[in-house]
Here is the input.
Amino acid sequence: MAGNLLARSAHDLGAAAWFGGTLMGAVGLNGATAKAKDPKERTRLSALGWAKWTPVQIAAFAAHGIGGLGLIGANKGRVKGQDSVGSNTGWKTVVTLVGMALSLYSGILGKKVGELAEQGGQGATEPRPGANDELAKAQKQLKVTQWLLPVFSGTVIVMGAKQGEMQRPENIVKGLLKK
Here is the structure.
């Protein structure tokens, strides 16, 4: 039980940190830096803030992934034998991996925006009139990716909640009878 509790805690806390951090960054950090008086500071400070978040996000991914592997190992009979558990686990893995790849791409875009910060912006992800194409393109793509991240991480949390519901004794029995 203690191992399963530890795995579930790492799994869920990792996903929660990923969701909360990306949502706070998109809303709070980008929103606050958009209010900086100097347009150059808007892009620079946002890029710095997201860069500070990166090691925490990597740790959240690691905790989530290690916890997830522990849960799969502890529940391998259910994953294989209970109706819908295996498919939910597979889809949740796909959503997680796509979200992690999106996070990596967002980080690459953020680094580019940070390198071009001296050009300034209307906001962290909103180009200023007359911005060069490279910065404008990176900011526009960054805006999309930074809003997709809470969607993906939130979906992972919802899928995890579904798996928790599938562990209720009455659902296990129903799921095993369907097979």
